[in-house]
Design goal:
Layout lengths: L1 H12 L12 E4 L5 E7 L2 E4 L5 E4 L30 E3 L3 E2 L5 E12 L8 E8 L1 E6 L2 E6 L33 H4 L9 E7 L8 E10 L3 E2 L1 H4 L5 H4 L13 E9 L4 E2 L9 E5 L20 E7 L2 E9 L8 E6 L6 E6 L12 E2 L8 E9 L7 E10 L6 E13 L9 E5 L2 H8 L6 H16 L4 E5 L14 E5 L2 E5 L1 H14 L4 E5 L7 E3 L4 E2 L6 E5 L6 E5 L6 H19 L7 E6 L2 E3 L1 H10 L4 E6 L5 E2 L2 E8 L22 E3 L17 H13 L4 E6 L6 E2 L5 E2 L24 E2 L4 E2 L2 H23 L2 H7 L1 H23 L1 H5 L3 H21 L2
Parallel strand pairs: 3-13, 17-24, 25-40, 26-29, 27-32, 29-34, 34-36, 36-38, 38-39, 39-40
Antiparallel strand pairs: 1-14, 2-5, 2-7, 3-4, 6-14, 7-12, 7-15, 8-11, 8-14, 9-10, 9-12, 16-18, 18-22, 19-23, 20-21, 20-22, 23-24, 27-28, 30-31, 30-35, 32-33, 37-38, 41-42, 43-44
Helix pairs in contact: 6-7, 8-9, 10-11, 10-13, 11-13, 11-15, 13-15
C-alpha cells in the first residue's frame, strides 16, 4: 500500500487551487506536519442489495451483534479540547482492520495576524467520507450526509472501488494497487482547496480537525470473486476484503503572510513530550503549536515508573545535560539517554548514562523508583534541560503515589523466559570464555534480567546446541584413566543467576538435541542418530577436546548420564531449587523412546522442557514441566468469561513468534505496545507468560551477504528451523561499551510485569470468597476495570496497534494502580 499512498499524495499535491508550490503560496501544513489522532472501532456493516445496512461478523455473515468502542467527546474538534492522550504521527493513516470505523484527526497551525492570511485553503484525501472543521466549526464535508452521527457510515463507494475492469475483486498484496492505480482512486474522496472562512480563524493557535468515516462493505465482496479464486481460496477474507477507512493526506496553504508554516523542524532548541510506548525517531520534531506538558508519573510504592522527553535542534545538540528532582523523599528521578541503534531503521533503542554526541534529536528516558515506604499522595518536581547556546528549559514533574506496594521483581508472578548467551558476550567483546572479564559481562546481563523478573536459567551440558555454544558448562576431566565431572562453571553461572534473578522456575540442563535421533511430533522416529557431543578437559594442558557419548539405548548410555544428572541435582538441591530441575530441549522433534526411557531412568524426578509449535504434557513417561508453544497459544476470552494464568498448575508459556495467538510475534521491530501489553495478555489468556526469547544473542558471526548473524543454529546439526529464536526476538538487551544495556523493549517488559502483577493482585482478591466480600462495591468496579483492560488488549491485537496507542492507555494504567490500592486498603482494613 505504500506505492498507492505515495501516488495518492502526489495526486493530492497537484490539485489546482491554492496549493503550495504555486507562486505566492506558502505551505502551512503538509505531509511533514504532525497531527493527533483517535481511532474508534465498531462492528462492520454490509450494504445489502435492497439498500439496507446489516451488521456482519468477521466471516461476512449477518445479522451480527453491534459492539463498539467509545467515541471521542462531543467537543473533540474544539480548539481548547485536550488531545494530549491521543496518538501523534505524520503521514497517511490506513485502518489496520475492517472493524475500525472512525478516525478523528487534529492538527494545529498558528495565525500571527488573521488580516494578513489571504486565502487559506485546505486540500485533503480520505477513504471514505469526511467532515472538516476549523476551531470547532464545520467548513466542508464529502461523502457524508448532513446530520450524520459520529458513528455513522460514510456514503457507499462505487463499484470501481471493488472491481477491476473484468469484474474481479482487487487482491491485496498482489500488485493490484499499482496495476489499477487510476481505477482505485474511486476509493478516495477529496476536499479540493476548501477555503477557510476568515471568521473561523483566531489569532494564535488554531485547530484543523478532520472526521473520517468508514464506508459500509459492498455486497460485491460476497458475490464477486477475486482473480484466481480457486487457487487462492484458502487465503480467505485477507485476500480481498479491505478496510474502507483511511487518511491519505492533507495540505493547508496560504497566499498571505499571516499564517506560520509548521512543516519542518523549527529553527531553535525544542523539548517535547513523547509517549513511551512509541519509538522516537531521528527525524522527529516537536509541534511548536503544542505546549510542553508536565511529565507525569503515577504508580504504586516499589514501582519503577518511566516517561520520555525529546530534545531537538536544527543542528547537532551540544552540551546536553538533563537534571531532575522530586519532592518525594528517597525517590530520585533518573535520566538516561537513548542511542540511535533502534530495531526500526532511524529509531532509537538502547539507554546509556551520557548523551551521545552528534544527534539533532535526543530522546531522554526519565525514571522514578518509588520507595516501598513512600507515603501515598501527590508530589511535584522538575526536569531541567540545558544545552550549549540556549536558555535552560524547565519541565514540571507530577508524581502520584498509590497505596498498594509492588513486589520485588524476583517475586513477580508472570513468567519471563529470556535466555542468556555467554558465548555471544565472549565473541562480541573479544574476551576469553570464563575469564574474569567474561564473568563481569555475564553478571551485567543477569543484573538486568533480574529487573524484569526473569524466571529461567539454562546450563548446557553438551556442545554444539542450538544456542551456538561451542562447549558445555559441564566438563569431563581426564583422571586416572577415566573421567570425573567438573560442574564449577555451571555452579558459578547458576549462582550469578540466583543472585540477580532469585529462585528460578526453570533450571534447565541442556542435554538433548535432535541430532541424536528423534521423531517429528507424532511421526515415526528418524534413524539412530549419534551420541551427544560433550567436552573433555585435559587438566595438564587446559585444552578442551571434542568427544561423543554413547547413543541412546546403548547399555553405556545410562551409566554415562547418571552421574551428570546426580551432580546437577545435587548442585540445585544445595540451593533449595531442586524442584526447578528440568531437561531439554525438545521441540517439534521429540526424543526417541530409547532417549526418553534412558533419561527417565537416570533422572526420575526431572521434567522435560518442550519448545514447540505443538503442545505436549509428557514424553516417554517423564512429565513436561515447561511448555512454550505456538499453534495452540490461547487468546484471552472476551469477558464475562475469564481465565487466570496464575491459577494454571502447568507452567505453560507462549513462544511469541508468528502463529501465536496470545499477543502476536514479539520480534525486535514489533510495536512497543505489543511488549507493553504482553504479560497481561498472557495471564488473561490462562497461561503464565512467554519463553524462548533471547536476552543477548546479538549478531556476532559472519553470515550471508556480508551480514553478521547470531549464534543461534550456527552448527548445522542443531538448527531448529522455524523454531529458532530468530523467529521471535534473539535479543532484548543491547550491547554497550562495558556490557548489556536496557532497550525500549526491555523497558516495556518492565512496565508489562508491573501491570500484570497489579492485575494478579486484584484477581487473587476477586476470586477468593472471603476477600471479595471484604471489598464491597470495590469488587464490581475492579472487575469491570480488568474486563475493560482485557477487551482493550484483545482489540489492540486484532484491530491494530494504531488503535491502541490512541485509546487512552495512560489513563487505564493509572486506573489499574488506583484500584489496586483501593483493594489493598480494603484488605488491610479487614485485619
Amino acid at each position: 500500500m505504500r506505492q498507492r499512498a505515495a501516488s495518492l499524495w502526489f495526486w493530492l499535491s497537484s490539485l489546482s487551487v491554492g496549493i503550495a508550490g504555486e507562486p505566492g503560496v506558502t505551505p502551512i501544513l503538509d505531509a511533514g506536519s504532525y497531527y493527533r489522532y483517535f481511532i474508534a472501532w465498531r462492528t462492520e456493516f454490509l450494504r445489502k442489495g435492497d439498500g439496507s445496512l446489516e451488521p456482519i461478523d468477521d466471516r461476512g455473515k449477518g445479522p451480527a451483534p453491534v459492539v463498539a468502542s467509545d467515541l471521542p467527546p462531543a467537543n473533540w474538534a474544539a480548539p481548547d479540547f485536550d488531545d494530549s492522550a491521543w496518538a501523534r504521527r505524520r503521514g497517511p493513516l490506513k485502518a489496520a482492520a475492517t472493524e475500525m470505523s472512525l478516525i478523528c484527526l487534529r492538527s494545529r497551525f498558528e495565525v500571527s495576524d488573521p488580516a494578513k492570511v489571504g486565502d487559506l485553503c485546505i486540500s485533503a484525501a480520505v477513504t471514505a467520507g469526511g467532515v472538516l472543521y476549523v476551531n470547532g466549526t464545520e467548513i466542508a464535508r464529502v461523502g457524508m450526509p448532513q446530520g450524520a452521527a459520529l458513528d455513522a457510515e460514510a456514503e457507499d463507494l462505487p463499484k470501481e472501488a471493488y472491481l477491476d475492469p473484468d469484474g474481479n475483486l482487487y487482491r491485496i498484496g498482489w500488485g493490484d494497487e499499482k496495476k489499477f492505480e487510476e481505477r482505485q482512486r474511486a476509493r478516495v474522496r477529496t476536499f479540493d482547496a476548501v477555503r477557510i472562512p476568515p471568521a473561523t480563524l483566531r489569532k494564535g493557535v488554531n485547530v484543523l480537525a478532520l472526521e473520517i468515516h468508514r464506508a459500509p462493505a459492498s455486497e460485491l465482496l460476497l458475490t464477486a470473486k477475486p482473480l484466481r479464486w480457486r487457487e487462492e481460496q484458502w487465503r480467505g477474507r485477507s485476500y480481498y476484503w479491505w478496510s474502507r477507512l483511511a487518511f491519505e493526506g492533507l495540505k493547508l496553504s496560504a497566499t498571505g503572510e499571516g499564517a506560520v508554516p509548521t512543516v519542518a523542524r523549527p529553527p531553535k532548541l525544542q523539548v517535547w513530550n513523547h509517549p513511551r510506548i512509541e519509538r522516537p525517531m531521528a527525524n522527529d520534531w516537536g509541534d511548536p503549536c503544542e505546549g510542553l506538558r508536565p511529565v507525569r508519573f503515577a504508580g504504586p510504592r516499589g514501582a519503577a515508573l518511566s516517561q520520555a522527553l525529546c530534545v531537538g535542534s536544527p543542528a547537532a545538540i551540544k552540551g546536553l545535560k538533563v537534571s531532575a528532582a522530586a519532592t518525594l523523599p528517597g525517590a530520585a528521578i533518573e535520566a538516561a539517554y537513548l542511542q540511535a541503534d533502534g530495531d526500526v531503521r532511524g529509531s532509537f533503542g538502547s539507554l546509556v548514562a551520557e548523551p551521545p554526541e552528534g544527534n539533532a534529536v535526543q530522546p531522554v528516558w526519565l525514571r522514578v523508583r518509588v520507595p516501598t515506604d513512600a507515603k501515598p499522595g501527590d508530589y511535584t518536581g522538575k526536569v531541567t534541560v540545558i544545552c550549549e547556546g540556549a536558555e535552560p528549559i524547565t519541565v514540571p514533574v507530577e508524581l502520584t503515589v498509590y497505596g498498594w506496594t509492588m513486589p520485588a521483581p524476583r517475586d513477580f508472578t508472570a513468567h519471563v523466559g529470556l535466555i542468556q548467551s555467554p558465548d555471544t558476550l565472549a565473541l562480541h567483546y573479544g574476551v576469553e570464555m570464563w575469564s574474569e572479564a567474561h564473568w563481569r559481562l555475564i553478571e551485567r546481563s543477569f543484573q538486568l534480567l533480574g529487573e524484569v523478573g526473569n524466571k529461567v536459567v539454562f546450563i548446557p551440558a553438551i556442545r554444539r546446541t542450538h544456542f551456538g555454544n561451542e562447549h558445555g558448562m559441564v566438563r569431563w576431566v581426564r583422571a586416572d584413566g577415566g573421567h570425573k565431572l567438573d560442574f564449577s562453571l555451571a555452579e558459578k553461572y547458576l549462582d550469578l543467576a540466583l543472585k540477580h534473578q532469585g529462585k528460578p522456575q526453570v533450571a534447565c540442563l541442556y542435554c538433548w538435541e535432535p541430532y541424536t535421533g528423534g521423531k517429528y511430533l507424532d511421526h515415526a522416529a528418524k534413524g539412530g542418530g549419534k551420541g551427544m557431543c560433550y567436552t573433555v578437559l585435559d587438566p595438564k594442558t587446559g585444552r578442551l577436546e571434542e568427544a561423543e557419548g554413547p547413543k541412546w539405548g546403548e547399555p553405556a548410555a545410562r551409566e554415562f548420564w547418571r552421574p551428570v544428572m546426580d551432580g546437577f541435582r545435587e548442585l540445585l538441591a544445595k540451593r533449595g531449587i531442586e524442584d526447578a530441575m528440568m531437561l531439554g530441549l525438545a521441540g517439534d522433534t521429540r526424543p526417541t523412546k530409547e532417549a526418553g526411557e534412558d533419561l527417565l531412568a537416570v533422572a526420575p524426578n526431572a521434567k522435560w522442557i518442550v519448545h514447540s509449535h505443538a503442545t505436549a504434557d509428557s514424553l516417554w513417561g517423564m512429565p513436561v514441566g515447561y511448555l512454550c508453544d505456538v499453534w495452540g497459544a490461547p487468546q484471552a476470552p472476551d469477558p464475562p468469561k475469564r481465565l487466570y494464568g496464575w491459577q494454571n498448575p502447568f507452567l505453560r508459556a507462549t513462544f511469541p513468534r508468528a502463529g501465536s495467538n496470545t499477543i502476536g510475534s514479539m520480534h525486535p521491530d514489533a510495536p512497543l505496545a505489543m511488549w507493553y501489553l504482553s504479560l497481561e495478555a498472557m495471564q488473561a489468556a490462562g497461561i503464565h507468560g512467554f519463553g524462548r526469547v533471547g536476552a543477548d544473542f546479538w549478531p556476532v558471526v559472519p553470515g550471508p551477504e556480508k551480514r553478521m548473524k547470531t549464534l543461534l543454529g550456527r552448527f548445522p546439526e542443531s538448527g531448529w528451523g522455524q523454531l529458532s529464536m530468530t523467529e521471535s526476538s534473539p535479543w532484548t538487551l543491547a550491547p554497550g561499551k562495558d556490557g548489556a544495556l536496557p532497550t525500549l523493549r526491555f523497558e516495556m517488559l518492565r512496565a508489562a510485569q508491573q501491570q500484570a502483577e497489579a492485575r494478579v493482585f486484584i484477581e487473587r482478591a476477586l476470586t477468593h470468597g472471603a476477600k471479595r466480600a471484604t471489598l464491597g462495591d470495590v469488587a464490581a468496579r475492579a472487575e469491570k476495570l480488568l474486563d475493560d483492560r482485557t477487551r482493550a488488549l484483545n482489540y489492540a491485537r486484532s484491530r491494530g496497534w494504531d488503535y491502541f496507542v490512541s485509546s487512552g492507555w495512560q489513563a487505564r494504567e493509572e486506573a489499574l494502580y488506583a484500584i489496586a490500592s483501593e483493594v489493598a486498603a480494603k484488605l488491610e482494613g479487614s485485619h
